[in-house]
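[audit] Reproducing an earlier prediction to check determinism. Same input, same settings, fresh worker. If the tokens differ from the archived copy the diff job will pick it up downstream; this log only records the rerun itself.
[audit] input (244 residues):
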Amino acid sequence: MATKMTDFDPPNLFQGVSTPVEIRSSLGIRGLVPASYQPMELNVARCIARLREKQSSLDKYVYLRNIQSINENLFYAMLVSHTAELMSIVYTPTVGEACEKFSHIYIGHFRGLYLSLEDKGNVRRILDNWPSLNVSTIVVTDGERILGLGDLGVNGMGIPIGKLALYSACAGIHPSSQLPVHIDVGTNNEDNLEDPFYLGLRQRRERGQAYDDLIEEFIDAAQDKYGKNTLIQFEDFGNTNAFR
């Protein structure tokens, strides 16, 4: 049984039924996928057909996220070959609704790093839990000003995830070199605080020194692990913090 993220299927090698038969044994997946080999183009066509059957944009978003978590090669093959059709599902406008419902559609896939006020003093060690050693591009948010929707707290994690997916499809940044990050310092969104499914810290948003200390610790830890040339993009921070 897999006990840590690095025990799971190598996302850059696993391609489902598009994995060449001759390497399935070495990956330990022989017998775990159907015997037929089908080229990625055919796999893409099948999944695009299923996606087009779905009635709502949110259902399409969830479907694509599940594919990304199970078969990253297939996800990006779909996104690259159908960019115009899928861009509005992976990112705006659909990502806005997906963020609002993030805690309700979350099913536990590893997709990004979650840091909170409770992690103070441990951020560098937590970064070691992320399996990629070659991160060059980080998109980080604290979830305070997500699009035009306001303070969504941890539900804003959909923004870094979606933006980095487009960076891969449109700019060629390899998925293994990316890291979506959410820094959880609480939320002032009453709906989130009262939602039993909300996944973030159940407290008012931190405005004091503890906020600055956590941001500084994260930047220092990221630069220590990945180098000072790593791009750290701050996304959808509230005006109070973005302009100081």
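[audit] rerun output stored. Observation attached for the diff report: Residues 56 and 94 are 10 Å apart (CA to CA).
[audit] end
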